[in-house]
Amino acid sequence: MKDIDCYKLMKKCPRFQRCSVALCPLDREAEKRVYLEGEPTCRLDFERLITIADDGLKEQYGKFIGVSLDKGARFKPLNQTAVRTKSAQETNSQK
């Protein structure tokens, strides 16, 4: 049943049908996945992930970062991307 719930959550992602990442921030069982160096990483923006995952994202994302780093995945943490995006929006609104 847990695999089905995990699949349903990932299926909510707008990139699901064409996605090829081995480690998904929406995958509650990312530690079971295999990552090979150089494989693509998730580039979905943080705001969309929050919309998809609702309340459980912070805890799940913390786990995802740990698993990804343990497996050698190189990526830009989404929280840094979100901060940069917010700063850019604030700068644009001040102009």
SSE order and pairing:
Layout: H1 2-11, H2 46-53, H3 57-70, H4 78-94
Description:
The chain has helices at about 1-10, 45-55, 55-70, 80-95. By secondary structure, the protein is mainly α. It has one domain. The longest helix has 17 residues, at about 80-95. Residues about 80-90 have low confidence and may be disordered.
Descriptors for this entry?
95 residues; mainly alpha; 52% helix; 0% strand
Short structural description:
The chain is built from 4 helices and no strands.
N-end to C-end Cα span: 51 Å
Percent of residues in helices: 40-55%
Rg (C-alpha, Å) = 14 Å
User: How many strands?
Assistant: 0
